[in-house]
Design brief:
With about 350 residues, the protein is α/β, with parallel strands linked by helices. It has 7 helices and 18 strands. It folds into 3 domains: about 1-45 and about 145-205 and about 295-345, 3-Layer(bba) Sandwich (FAD/NAD(P)-binding domain), CATH 3.50.50; about 45-145, no CATH class; about 210-290, D-Amino Acid Oxidase, subunit A, domain 2 (D-Amino Acid Oxidase, Chain A, domain 2, 2-Layer Sandwich), CATH 3.30.9. Helices cover about 25% and strands about 30% of the residues. It comes from Spirosoma rhododendri.
């Protein structure tokens, strides 16, 4: 018997791809090595169509955001558990110049669908420093990645299609039509191993540019704000009395250790943004699997037709993975093309 796919890695990318292939009728074994750190275990899970100080529209946002909202909502409906929290992001203006710039930019018909025109600045004023008002971004929200990962793991365990442990590359017997591992034949093995791909001899040639990020968890009282608030850092209300504050970006010192410097930076930014007190109770660090051209890595190895990769999602894995997993599934099952900007063929020297 041949199992269709061996998915290596159960972060956001691996979970989403495994679910997508399973729903298309493929047989899938999903694996995860609990001894390997994962950026998905740290990430806040925010989906945001307009990012950064300049409100840059996320790549392929018009396709990604309707798709991801339907994708996560459909899993919730099937499994009967909530983990996706659609909502808005409130962006207080930092200056009159920024206010004018944002208002001019968001008048663009291409950007306007992502703007929520019902902003009530007065509702935020008791809790947020927003003397100049603010802008509300719609079609946003966040995924509880801990809960999402738990649900996907449980789903595949119940199907007896989950393996917890390492899948060493040197143990894979690769042929043109299949891969044999642990005495089992798989049609394809697809690596969704995040930043660990930089050490994977099959894919370490891809132009990764890993980014370290840190995030804080804090307790807070009397904070009824439901939206994510973002002004240099984000404040994400997880549940009553608990918020997350993030995130830092560092292309140096790429380890999984938290630092006092990052804590001080985030705490100072958050205290300047919030009018109410909060207490830091946790700090986490992760390494995002970003790429040099800020595009994902999706496709089949140029010399090993039974080996693929689905990664390089960087800071936007929660947003990118559903749409690209569907594209990859259509490539694998129906022969359709992969988005050229995501296909790893762009990285292969001719």
């Amino acid at each position: 018997m041949t199992i269709d796919y061996l998915i290596v890695g159960q972060g956001v990318a691996g979970s989403v791809l495994a679910w997508t292939l399973d729903q298309r009728g493929s047989s899938v074994v999903l694996t995860n090595d609990p001894t390997t750190p994962s950026a998905s275990a740290v990430a806040a899970g925010i989906v945001n169509p307009l990012t950064g100080r300049k409100l840059v529209q996320t790549w392929k946002a018009d396709a990604l955001f309707p798709f991801l909202h339907d994708f996560y909502s459909s899993i919730e409906a099937e499994l009967g558990v909530r983990f996706f929290h659609p909502g808005t992001i409130y962006r207080p203006y930092r200056s009159e110049a920024e206010k004018l710039s944002y208002q001019t930019y968001t008048a663009d018909p291409a950007v306007r669908p992502y703007i929520d025109s019902s902003t009530n600045d007065d509702a935020y004023a008791p809790y947020i420093n927003n003397a100049l008002g603010g802008l509300t971004v719609g079609q946003a929200g966040w995924v509880d990645l801990t809960e999402f990962g738990r649900l996907i793991k449980g789903y595949f365990i119940r199907k007896n299609q989950y393996y917890e442990g390492r899948v060493p590359v040197d143990e894979l017997l690769m042929t043109e039509s299949s891969v044999i591992w642990n005495g089992v034949r798989f049609g394809k093995v697809i690596f969704c191993d995040g930043v660990q791909a930089t050490e994977n001899p099959l894919f370490n040639w891809l132009p990764y540019a890993p980014v370290k990020g840190q995030i804080l968890t804090a307790t807070v009282e009397n904070y009824p704000v439901k939206s994510i608030v973002n002004q240099g850092v984000f404040v994400l209300p997880v549940r009553p009395g608990l918020i997350r504050i993030g995130a830092t970006y560092s292309w140096h010192d790429l380890d999984w250790k938290t630092t006092d410097e990052a804590r001080t930076y985030l705490e100072e930014k958050a205290r300047a943004l919030l009018k109410i007190p909060f207490e830091i109770v946790g700090q986490q660090a992760g390494i995002r699997p970003s790429s040099k051209d800020r595009r994902p890595f999706v496709g089949i190895h140029p010399d090993q037709p039974a080996v693929g990769i689905f990664g390089g999602m960087g800071t936007k894995g929660v947003s990118l993975s559903p749409y690209l997993a569907e594209q990859f599934a259509r490539y694998l099952l129906d022969g359709e093309e992969i988005e050229p900007e995501a296909n790893i063929t762009r990285c292969v020297s001719l």
